[in-house]
Specification:
Elements: H1 4-27, E1 33-34, E2 38-39, H2 40-60, H3 74-105, H4 107-112, H5 132-165, E3 170-172, E4 175-177, H6 179-190, H7 193-196, H8 205-218, H9 222-242
Antiparallel strand pairs: 1-2, 3-4
Helix pairs in contact: 1-2, 1-5, 2-5, 3-9, 5-6, 5-8, 5-9, 6-8, 8-9
Length: 244
Amino acid sequence: MVTPEDRRAGRDALLAWLAVAVIVASVVRIDVTLPLVGHLGSALVAVTLLYAPVVVAARRGEDLLDYGFTAAPLGKNLRYGGAVLAVVLPLFALGYVGFYDTVCADPDLRALAEPGTCRDWHGFDPHWPRQLGALAEFMLVQIVVVALPEELFFRGCVHGLLERRWPPTRRWLGGGIGWALIVSSALFAVIHLPKAGDPRALATFFPGLLFGWLRSATGSIGAAVGVHAASNICVRVLDEVLLR
């Protein structure tokens, strides 16, 4: 039975997302780079996503532990995160190579691809990354500036509150499946649109489902943060190793 408090949780989640979406749309395109900060727009988005759950928790008389901001249970997070990465990363790497090998080898498909897609692809010829320092910096940014803020807000705060409003109708390997997962993933996808205005950004709905399931299965954002960061890092590593 849904209680008034459950309805309030759902309303708070949607209002928090709306407020954050307005701020993100306003700051994400600030194209200024500062020393020790990097891209100012992205930094402001990260700060917004980190600060919003603090405000929501304070207004609701909760704290960030209620939103899964903990590594505990560490063993469970490591098992779930490791199992997901063991399946997802090899499949993605195969798909990455298969895409370039297929599209760039066929003139007709190449003509349909976005301009410049095949410019740096010269067949499967791995090489050592040229800029290890920049790659290491990218990895750190993905963990601290991208994955952690996004998972704390979207999976910890928004998804967590929505699961109170719409409890899972079923569970698969411990993770809840239901409206909360679908709605939070859709909100995650929509907020990616303002940065580039590219409708392909809506494809982030699908990894959002995976991250939300991890959050529900483990009770923490730990595994979701790890898988989110590792997935983004995997793309960059493949670019560095296979494109010239």
